[in-house]
Each structure stands twice: as C-alpha cells, then as structure tokens.
Amino acid sequence: MESFFPFAETTDGVTVRVSVTFLPEQSDIDSKRWFWAYHVRIENHRDTAVQLLTRHWRINDERGGLQMVDGDGVVGEQPIIQPGKAHDYVSGCPLNTQRGSMEGHFVMVGSTPPAFEVRIPRFVLAEPTVEQ
C-alpha cells in the first residue's frame, strides 16, 4: 500500500494517503496546460466513526503562484467513515506549469464535538520528464 500511496500523514487517528498520476492525454503542453489525477484514501483508525465536512487545498505552481480551494466535502460527498474503514476518491488538478504541489486539510467531526483538522500531506505534481 505504501508504494501505491507514496504520500501519507496521520492526524488524531485518521490517515490520509495520496497517489498522483500525470495525465498526458488531458494535458496540452503547447498551450501550457498540465493535468494530474490524484487518488486520496482516508482511513479511520479511531474507535468511533468520523465524518468529513470540508476541505482546504493550497495548490502551488513552480512560478510561485498559489491557489486556495475551500469547499464542502469531497467530490460532492461528506462521507461518514466507520472505525477500521476507509473512503477513497479521485479528483484532478490542472496547472499552467509542468511542476507544482498540493497540500491542505480536511475538517472532520467525530462522535462528539469539536470538529478537528486532518492534515493532507504535501504531494508533488510533476510531468514525468521533470526531475522529481
């Protein structure tokens, strides 16, 4: 699992794992548009269920550009993750540079308040021909 999800971080018993795939068929290098898919697995190692409420992303490109993305849930869902279970989703990120990174956090709530932040590890977006 570690090789498929090379980026991982655990916060308060919840582990977030990420893998990234460059999508050349959705990229247009001549127009300076690169596109990646990222697969996120959220694992609940706590004794009680957790629910993902919101997300916060910091997306950086190699020219120093920064984009912040905030919203409810992930891909239209606010999943409840039972103890010992995981939730997987796939999304995508376009950039106007051939290299960048993403990181952020989810806001989750357990069986009792308060809500808490779960860190999303920093991961690199790089065209395969670019040295990682």
TrEMBL record:
Note the Pfam families from the entry.
DUF525 (PF04379)
| Residue span(s) of domain ApaG | 8-132
PANTHER family associated with the record: OS05G0170800 PROTEIN
Name of the molecule in the record: Co2+/Mg2+ efflux protein ApaG
Q: Which organism is it from?
A: Parasphingorhabdus flavimaris
